[in-house]
């Protein structure tokens, strides 16, 4: 009997085994999906519910594929949960409400760093079927947007559909963000004076009005704590649809105040109003509180009440909102002539300068071509002449009608909305002033509150073509032909008057002919519709969405990003780069734009990691999308910094990743314990593949080797390669970057060859020193002078050093002028030729320099440093404490940054008249030059860093005897952290 039971169990097991394999073979799902289901454990049924749900209807075939995609790639995805994570999220919300100057202290506060439990929840074993279905449904709704439809299904799955962006708990951020932001992208809000409502004007109770000197009308409405009073105002909406609101406020409390906002007694939300500073002064750097309400036409009542603390309301902005389908290109980006019934738009002066006016001319030869660019809804009008570019700008003074050209700051008064006219053409209205572009009787272009002329503007496309003359005087002439929108005809512009002449500003007719003659012109008419746009609609959408994502403010600690609840990020939108890029990606994906995050583990020429947002056009091309910069703008720190290796975050499991290839066989660096990224170095860099042999050939157990770059303290890994034969093979390495090849033993790295770089021809160049040869070198810096702040360096050019015997410097004598060869961020010396004695000395900054200077040391004829009372312009730019005292504090990193751009100065008042023989000074700098009095130690690389000795700097350079061809590192023992490896070529430091 026992044997019977045993045999029966064997039979049952066999049957179940066969059945399960037959079932696996018969399931309609992919092998990757089935493997994921096998790993799901008890959660398998939940996942199968999703597949069965979408398998019932053929119309859901794409959604079924999307479900398989999510489930099959869920294998290694997880969330970090627990009381410690909860504490971090409370911390994040709390910090949002703090004053800016208090945030650093709060971030470091022990009371906000409570340790707790942390646990890992794998999505595969915990996610619910309803959550996945909700994600698929909401993602497919965005896939139906006009700008999203053209994405391939593969692009949609990889860069729109995924719900997982970090290790935070799974929440439906997509629906939340879509509901919050989608109404915004279709609205054209026009502000202007009439959109501003002073809060204090909505009460007659004097006790509710407070005086604040720099408030918009020097008064504010006092909203008392805990609902003791309410702010109420009536709104008259002349249309049905979404309306935008913005509240400017003051909060002098240490932390945030919470207020409830209602419309028609319906709660819109409980809004957090962060602290702004004091009760005495408005802080205009704080963003207003913004929200959207869907209104019917007619009268409505808005109420605000405090739920906890006092709050001052300065004013509300309720712009006139016009709904435009987005991203419908009303006028395509391109170059146009702007025309109305009176003629063409042009400059009122011959040259393109700031504050030049505009006028209408009826002489087409004087028309000014205008480059039209759009963010999806609003437009900029750019004019170019002699390599100078300006934009059309609306003057923002309350009663001003001025329209002018000015430098492009991308501000709202430089953006214009185009409102289609029923009879053709457009009304052009300024975003900031809500005034309409029109003209006066003398043809001066102005902005006006009322469109009293009702004269539509038209855009004539500028085209350049080459034409042939078939007459006796056969020659080729370059000219413009223009499409007349109204008459739907082409106009050919040719001028045959006067002597031969080529214009520098080649706007319309490029050449006059020497003699008049008659010609027959042949040309092909091109069908160039005004609405045809060469810019991908998805990029148009991303550009429009950037107005939302640009509200993000950078602050915080990099290591808190992974744990922050996505809903908190959407609501409070602050943090460091990891949170910023997550915020951008969530907003973009929720609105149907394919996007992800590219990153470097560590820059190749400086410390720290970095990541940035990218979006994709319909062809799959990558476009940079950096916060607070125009979409596609190439940001210098990404394009000019050395990267070494660049990676892209994915939702698909990268089967060629080190994590998958290694499969647990050997210890690998923690940064590579992740299959959800791929190598995109070749999209950013001129790269090569290389093989690096192992020095002193020995038995290698490691299958994988690594490439490291240097940060401020250590060599750090950024790439990996496989061991093939006697060498490690590395792919896609940026050229002209210093790499150190190394093995990893599970804890530490060991170099297996010399540091190397790849030259422009793709050849490996090793850095090898000759121990038998020694030479003397001079070193002036420990870190390269990066040109990211080059414009600050130049502020010192033209500054003057003056001596005087009157405190007002009315008898001043210039004893030295800073020239353009003195911008290098090191100490410079000026020798005075004046023998006169002075009671007062000063440095007066050049025009628009804010008198920027970091340190000044003055000497008498005996070489003694002169001391005196510090005098000069009081205050600093934006009251940041960068005052005149900083110039004489013996700290090269502090500077005087004057409150005014021009006319400011800093100096010394001596006890008695003195001779000035020498001035040592330094402008804006990074503090990495060799400083007299500091202690230094020089190292060279020989399988590890080896010391060449310590020295105290007695001048601006250090002199050492060193091995020829070595790699060096200079360490300041007195202060500072920044240092980089360098070699010596022709006596100069070459930085790596």
TrEMBL record:
Would the keyword Signal turn up in this protein's UniProt record?
yes
Work out whether the entry's keyword set contains Ion transport.
no
- InterPro entries documented for this protein: Galactose-bd-like_sf, Ricin_B-like_lectins
UniProt signal peptide = 1-25
Keywords attached to this entry? Signal
Protein name, as recorded: CBM6 domain-containing protein
Question: What is the species of this protein?
Answer: Flavobacterium glycines
């Amino acid at each position: 009997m026992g044997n019977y039971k045993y045999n029966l169990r064997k039979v049952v097991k066999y049957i179940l085994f066969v059945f399960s394999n037959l079932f696996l073979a018969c399931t309609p799902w992919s092998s990757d999906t089935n493997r994921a289901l096998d790993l799901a454990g008890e959660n398998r049924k939940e996942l199968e519910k999703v597949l069965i749900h979408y398998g019932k209807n053929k119309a859901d075939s794409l959604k079924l594929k999307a479900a398989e995609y999510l489930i099959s790639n869920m294998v290694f995805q997880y969330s970090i949960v627990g009381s410690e994570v909860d504490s971090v999220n409370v911390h994040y919300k709390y910090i949002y409400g703090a004053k800016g100057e208090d945030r650093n202290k709060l971030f470091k506060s022990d009371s906000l760093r409570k340790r707790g439990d942390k646990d890992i929840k794998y999505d595969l074993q915990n996610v619910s079927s309803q959550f996945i279905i909700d994600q698929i449904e909401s993602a497919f709704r965005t896939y139906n947007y006009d700008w999203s439809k053209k994405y391939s299904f593969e692009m949609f799955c990889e860069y729109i559909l995924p719900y997982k962006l970090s290790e935070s708990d799974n929440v439906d951020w997509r629906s939340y963000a879509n509901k919050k932001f989608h109404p915004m992208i279709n609205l054209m809000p026009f502000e202007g004076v009439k959109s501003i409502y002073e809060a204090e004007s909505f009460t007659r109770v004097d006790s509710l009005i407070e005086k604040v000197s720099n408030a918009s009308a020097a008064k504010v409405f006092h909203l008392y704590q805990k609902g003791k009073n309410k702010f109420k105002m009536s709104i008259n909406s002349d249309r049905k649809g979404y309306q935008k609101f913005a509240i400017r406020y003051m909060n002098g409390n240490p932390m945030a105040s919470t207020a409830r906002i209602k419309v028609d007694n319906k709660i819109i939300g409980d809004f957090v109003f962060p602290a702004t500073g004091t009760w005495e002064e408005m802080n205009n750097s704080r963003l207003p509180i913004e929200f959207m309400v869907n209104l019917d036409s007619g009268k409505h009542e808005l109420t605000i009440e405090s739920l906890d603390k006092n709050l001052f309301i300065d004013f509300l902005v309720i712009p006139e909102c016009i709904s435009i389908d987005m991203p419908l290109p009303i006028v395509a980006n391109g170059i146009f002539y702007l025309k109305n019934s009176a003629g063409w738009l042009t400059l009122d002066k011959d040259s393109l300068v700031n504050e030049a006016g505009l006028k209408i001319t009826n002489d087409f030869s004087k028309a000014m071509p205008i480059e039209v660019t759009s963010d999806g809804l609003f437009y900029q009008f750019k004019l170019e002449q002699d390599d100078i570019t300006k934009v059309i700008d609306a003057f923002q003074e309350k009663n001003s009608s001025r329209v002018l050209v000015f430098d492009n700051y991308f501000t709202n008064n430089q953006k214009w909305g185009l409102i289609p006219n029923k009879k053709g053409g457009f009304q052009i209205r300024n975003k900031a002033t809500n005034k309409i572009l029109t003209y006066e009787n003398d043809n001066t272009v102005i902005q006006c509150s009322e469109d009293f002329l009702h004269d539509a503007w038209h855009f004539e496309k500028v085209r350049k073509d080459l034409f042939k003359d078939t007459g006796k005087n056969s020659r080729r002439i370059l000219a413009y032909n223009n499409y007349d929108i109204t008459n739907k005809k082409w106009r050919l512009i040719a001028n045959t008057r006067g002597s031969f002449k080529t214009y520098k500003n080649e706007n319309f007719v490029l050449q006059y002919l020497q003699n008049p003659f008659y010609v027959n012109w042949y040309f092909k008419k091109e069908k160039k519709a005004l609405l045809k746009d060469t810019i991908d609609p998805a990029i148009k959408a991303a550009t429009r969405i950037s107005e939302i994502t640009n509200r993000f403010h950078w602050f915080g600690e990099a290591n808190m990003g992974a744990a922050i609840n996505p809903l908190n990020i959407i609501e409070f939108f602050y943090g460091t780069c990891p949170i910023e890029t997550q915020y951008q990606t969530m907003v973009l994906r929720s609105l149907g734009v394919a996007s992800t995050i590219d990153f470097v583990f560590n820059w190749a020429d400086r410390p720290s990691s970095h990541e940035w947002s990218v979006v994709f056009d319909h062809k799959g091309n990558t476009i940079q999308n950096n916060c607070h910069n125009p979409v596609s703008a190439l940001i210098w720190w990404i394009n000019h910094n050395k990267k070494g290796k660049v990676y892209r975050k994915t939702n698909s499991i990268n089967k060629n990743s080190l994590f998958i290839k290694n499969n647990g066989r050997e210890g690998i660096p923690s940064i590579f314990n992740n299959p959800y990224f791929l190598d995109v170095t070749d999209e950013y860099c001129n790269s090569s593949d290389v093989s690096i042999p192992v020095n002193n050939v020995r038995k290698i157990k490691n299958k994988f080797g690594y490439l490291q770059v240097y940060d401020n303290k250590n060599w750090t890994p950024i790439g990996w390669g496989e061991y093939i034969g006697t060498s490690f093979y590395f792919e896609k390495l940026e050229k002209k970057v210093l790499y150190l090849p190394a093995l990893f033993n599970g804890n530490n790295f060991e170099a297996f060859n010399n540091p190397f770089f790849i030259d422009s021809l793709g050849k490996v160049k090793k850095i090898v020193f000759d121990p038998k040869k020694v030479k003397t070198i001079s070193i002036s810096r420990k870190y390269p002078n990066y040109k990211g702040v080059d414009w600050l360096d130049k502020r010192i050019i033209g500054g003057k050093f003056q001596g005087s015997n009157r405190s007002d410097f009315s008898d001043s004598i210039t004893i030295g002028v800073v020239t353009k060869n003195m911008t290098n961020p090191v100490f410079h010396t000026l020798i005075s030729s004046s023998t006169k004695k002075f009671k007062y000395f000063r440095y007066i900054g050049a025009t628009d320099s804010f008198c920027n200077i970091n340190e000044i040391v003055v000497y008498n004829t005996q070489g003694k440093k002169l001391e005196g009372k510090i005098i000069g312009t009081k205050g600093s730019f934006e009251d940041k404490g960068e005052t005149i005292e900083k110039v004489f504090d013996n700290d090269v990193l502090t500077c005087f940054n004057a409150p005014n751009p021009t006319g400011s100065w800093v100096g010394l008042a001596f006890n008695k008249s003195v001779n000035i023989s020498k001035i040592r000074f330094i402008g804006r700098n990074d503090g990495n030059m060799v400083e007299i009095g500091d202690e230094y130690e020089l190292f060279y690389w020989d399988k590890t860093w080896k010391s060449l000795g310590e020295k105290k700097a007695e001048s601006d350079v250090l002199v050492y005897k060193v091995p020829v061809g070595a790699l060096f590192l200079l360490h300041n023992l007195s202060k500072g952290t920044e240092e980089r490896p360098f070699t010596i070529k022709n006596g100069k430091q070459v930085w790596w």
